[in-house]
């Protein structure tokens, strides 16, 4: 029997970052079903940090994570957590007025954001088809995240503070005790005052185990693959995404990481890529660029898990004492993790939302699980 103040279910970036943030104050044990942390969504991301991506709450959480990524704390032993990249939102057959509006909407969100002419777009990424490019909006300070270094840094910091991670420890049962929770896992029983549900695509399933209402999360499969850059010097290219987000590509160690930006609703699972989605990605790339996709060297898929409003779900369950949600990170789990971990740690300790996050307009209510479970509306909401 192990005893902890807080048992965190899930060792993806959500669970690991929160465990790191709260370990100086509480005894934390992270419980992970797989043999290694980060096996699911957190090991499969496109690793981009962008302050213009996502809805207003997500953008604020990303901005609240900026300092962490640009000036990492000492726990990370001097490792660079991000590298320069940039994000270029390209208009393909797009009305230039729409690009003007987009530039205006996002210009205050990140330094240096600006509108690009077609010539400026082609100077940056010469494979784009000139007849289709109507311009772009660039976010120069978007970054590549070294996701493995980030995840391992959180876990190292956790252990330094006396916390631990149990792997091969699938949670199979949750029951209330006088002091909190009894957590049954495949690696033994854990007693904890508080349980944190950071189980990614499985978070509604964990809620069911605990007897909580579901919040109505939808895991959505996203596919990615690596293709040959065919002699192009791609290293300095930004991530290129069309304004309708129907595909994107970015340099990845001399190759191009390509995704059809698919969002296929899926049951929680070990997501695998479908050949059709890889073919769709190749087709969209070939229509937008002069590149011909001859060889795909690696392909994978992961689940981006969304609540109905595409805003993460963070906070204590209204109906179940000691049951805390940290779920629904969607396609933004890395770029928002540092701020979300600080927010979650504050709420767990009964503190106010940190001042800097309040200054960005973040409120506990906007993220609270009760927005879905109050008045018994629960899982019926169903994300699209
Ligand atoms: C293709 C793709 C591209 C992406 N690109 C980006 C990007 O550029 N930038 C960005 O910020 N985000 C991106 N994301 C999203 C990001 O990867 C996710 O938001 C983030 O990884 C979610 O982290 P998590 O910890 O919530 O989930 P996960 O990493 O899935 O972790 C949840 C963990 O819970 C464990 N678990 C589940 N059930 C149990 C149980 N019963 N007992 C014990 N453990 C359990 C699972 O095994 C899993 O390890 C992308 C995702 C994908 C798939």
Can you offer a commentary on this structure?
This protein has 384 residues and is an alpha+beta fold. The protein folds into two domains: 2-64 and 147-217 and 309-381, FAD/NAD(P)-binding domain (3-Layer(bba) Sandwich); 87-140 and 219-306, D-Amino Acid Oxidase, subunit A, domain 2 (D-Amino Acid Oxidase, Chain A, domain 2). The chain contains twelve helices and 20 strands. The chain has helices at residues 13-22, 56-63, 66-70, 96-106, 118-124, 147-160, 203-210, 275-288, 333-348, 355-359, 364-367, 370-373; strands at 2-9, 28-31, 48-49, 82-84, 87-92, 114-116, 133-139, 143-145, 164-166, 171-177, 180-185, 188-197, 218-227, 239-242, 248-252, 255-259, 264-265, 296-306, 313-316, 323-327. Strands 5, 6, 7, 13, 14, 15, 16, 17 and 18 form a nine-stranded mixed sheet that branches. Strand 14 and strand 15 form a beta hairpin. The chain is globular. The chain starts with a strand and ends in an 11-residue tail after the last helix. 51% of the residues are buried. Mean pLDDT is 96; it is low at 377-384. The structure holds flavin-adenine dinucleotide.
Question: How would you describe this structure in keywords?
Answer:
20 strands, binds flavin-adenine dinucleotide, 2 domains, D-Amino Acid Oxidase, Chain A, domain 2, eight-stranded mixed beta sheet, alpha+beta, globular, 12 helices, FAD/NAD(P)-binding domain, disordered C terminus, about 375 residues, nine-stranded mixed beta sheet
């Amino acid at each position: 029997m192990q005893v902890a103040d807080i048992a965190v279910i899930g060792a993806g970036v959500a669970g690991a970052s929160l465990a790191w943030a709260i370990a100086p104050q509480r005894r934390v044990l992270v419980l992970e079903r797989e043999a290694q942390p980060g096996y699911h969504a957190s090991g499969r991301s496109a690793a981009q940090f962008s302050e213009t991506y996502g809805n207003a709450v997500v953008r604020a959480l990303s901005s609240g994570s900026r300092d962490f990524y640009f000036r990492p704390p000492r726990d990370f032993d001097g490792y660079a957590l991000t590298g320069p990249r940039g994000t270029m939102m390209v208009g393909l057959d797009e009305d230039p007025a729409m690009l003007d509006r987009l530039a205006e909407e996002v210009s205050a969100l990140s330094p240096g954001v600006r509108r690009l002419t077609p010539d400026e777009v082609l100077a940056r990424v010469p494979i784009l088809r000139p007849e289709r490019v109507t311009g772009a909006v660039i976010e120069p300070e978007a970054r590549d995240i070294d996701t493995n270094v980030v995840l391992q840094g959180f876990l190292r910091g956790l252990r330094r503070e006396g916390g631990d991670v149990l792997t091969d420890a699938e949670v199979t049962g949750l029951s209330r005790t006088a002091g909190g929770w009894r957590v049954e896992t495949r690696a033994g029983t854990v007693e904890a005052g508080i349980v944190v549900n950071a189980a990614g695509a499985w978070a509604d399933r964990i809620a069911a185990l605990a007897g909580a209402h579901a919040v109505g999360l939808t895991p959505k499969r996203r596919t990615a693959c690596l293709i040959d850059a065919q002699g192009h010097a791609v290293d300095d290219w930004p991530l290129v995404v069309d304004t309708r987000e129907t595909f994107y590509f970015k340099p990845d160690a001399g190759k191009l990481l390509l995704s059809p930006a698919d969002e296929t609703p899926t049951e929680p699972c070990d997501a695998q890529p479908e050949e059709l989605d890889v073919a769709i990605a190749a087709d969209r790339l070939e229509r937008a660029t002069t590149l011909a996709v001859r060889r795909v060297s690696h392909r994978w898929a992961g689940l981006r898990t969304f609540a109905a409003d595409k805003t993460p779900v963070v906070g204590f369950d209204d109906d179940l004492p000691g049951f805390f949600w940290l779920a629904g990170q969607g396609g933004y789990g890395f770029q928002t993790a540092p701020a979300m971990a600080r927010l979650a740690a504050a709420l767990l300790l009964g503190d106010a939302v940190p001042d800097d996050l309040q200054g960005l307009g973040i409120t506990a209510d906007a993220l609270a699980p009760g927005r879905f479970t109050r008045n018994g509306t629960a899982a019926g909401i169903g994300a699209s």
